[in-house]
Amino acid sequence: MTPRAAAVQKWVVPLAVVAAWEGFGRAGFAPRYLSYPSDILAALWSVTVDGELGTATLASLYRVIGGFVIGTAAGMLAGLGAGLARGVRNFFDPLVSFLFAVPKIAFLPVFLLLFGIGHMSKIAIVGFSCFFPVFIASRHAVLSVDKLLVWAARNMGTPPRTLFLRVVIPAAAPQLFAGVRVSLAHAFVVLFAAELIGSHAGLSQIIADGDNAAQFDLMFAGILAFAALGFASDRILMAVRKRLLRGQTLGTEEQVVP
Amino acid sequence: MTARLGRIVAEWYSIPLLLAVWQLAVSSGLIESRLLPSVASVWDTLVAEIADGVLVYHASVTIGRALLGYALAALAGVPFAALMARSPLCSNLFEPIFFFGYPIPKIALFPVFTYIFGFGTPSKVAFTFLECLYPIVVTSYLGFRGIETRLVWAAQNFGASRMTVLRRVVLPAALPSVFSGLRIALPVSIIVVVLTEMIGDSIGLGYYITVWGTRFTFQNVYAAIVVIGIIGFALDQALLRLRRAVVPWQKDPAR
Fold this sequence. Notes:
The complex is a heterodimer. By secondary structure, chain A is an all-alpha fold. Chain A has helices at residues 3-27, 37-49, 52-84, 86-99, 108-115, 119-143, 147-155, 160-197, 203-212, 216-244. Chain A is globular. Chain B is mainly alpha-helical. In chain B, helix 9 (162-199) packs antiparallel against helix 11 (218-246). The relative contact order of chain B is 0.12. Chain B has helices spanning 2-12, 14-27, 39-52, 54-86, 88-101, 110-117, 121-145, 149-157, 162-199, 205-214, 218-246. Chain B has a single domain (37-246), classed as Orthogonal Bundle (MetI-like fold). The two termini of chain B are 24 Å apart. Chain B is built from 11 helices and no strands. Chain B is globular and about 75 Å long. At the A-B interface, helix 1, helix 4, helix 5, helix 6 and helix 8 of A face helix 1, helix 2, helix 5, helix 6 and helix 7 of B.
């Protein structure tokens, strides 16, 4: 197959879906709650112009970034510690293996009471959820660093600090990023649920408004904006990763977990 | 004997320690017991609600939904991944959907699912299916595609038929990746079901948590969290056992 044909084929399904959606929607064959793309874009434009989208996006971004940064930093610190020291590992392992399978959103009622329904409770629950995947990935990353590298460096008299910064961290970096990427995905899922359940605010406010008022174009505009935000942040993270891990990335992009 | 006991203590002390700190903080009045119920009261609630059958009922609803969506995703996803790896046309058509769709937070689509499938079980199962499909398809696809061609060539050289190649070469080579995908998707299924139940339902553990959370009766919330933790742990162990039976040559990653 020529590369050209392959490039064309990649667009077939997405374009066909959008075209069918638009066609059936306009003709009135599709249920009204599905709306249709041109209407959705119009709604998106109108909420952008009147500033509602900007405010909501900023609120959501503030929460998701706050929680993500705190949770990732804590998870990486604990995970690196657990990878390096048996004592730390023994402390965290049982707790994490029990809590990992629990949807962290289940703690939302507790967080709401502790931190109120404003920004803080969302940041806290997002941070709490981000901790776990980063912890597990970092712990595993450090433990699976090639022992030969560490021994070689030690043999040449590398002080522990240099050993950590110049050998362990670079060798573990691809897996560290894998954990961070998972936690970023978690952050958006948890944020959405927390906003929807806890208090209607941020981008999910737009989605819920459209849903409640049966303005389905508005609902989809919110969904589109939320999806775009999640997608864009993933791309940014991947770009950062590519810069930081030059030459180490081959065949590692796919270590993704939702 | 003492050495083994010492190791068990060293590896598991943190859970009892945390529980003890929790209990101490509550009984000393440091934290209001309304906010953080004592360990004993959570335990009492857990036992009572299980004996009563309430938690068992809600847990069975949640497990049923999660496993149904998960099983459907596995049944559809693995063959689909194989097809995508086999046919360039299929991979060109569907790769963008899976690889570009992966980082998109699909949870935002849940309101639409409730319109299409209704509020109860079907929308939860359908959404779980979607969320589990992504890791299963992507991971298995990479597994099927990463099979060394010389293995297939060698088999063909020995005169193996297409079915034999599929059964004896392709499947065994791809199964470790398939199981990785299945293992990633398993907690996802439970998380998604509980989450969507919290957004809106009248049965299931997510509903249970929301109801007792809004009544500020947190011993029930914690009891449900304990049940979810046990379910997740048990299902993961069951999957690992299945994997050890089916793919004995794959070693446990990162335990």
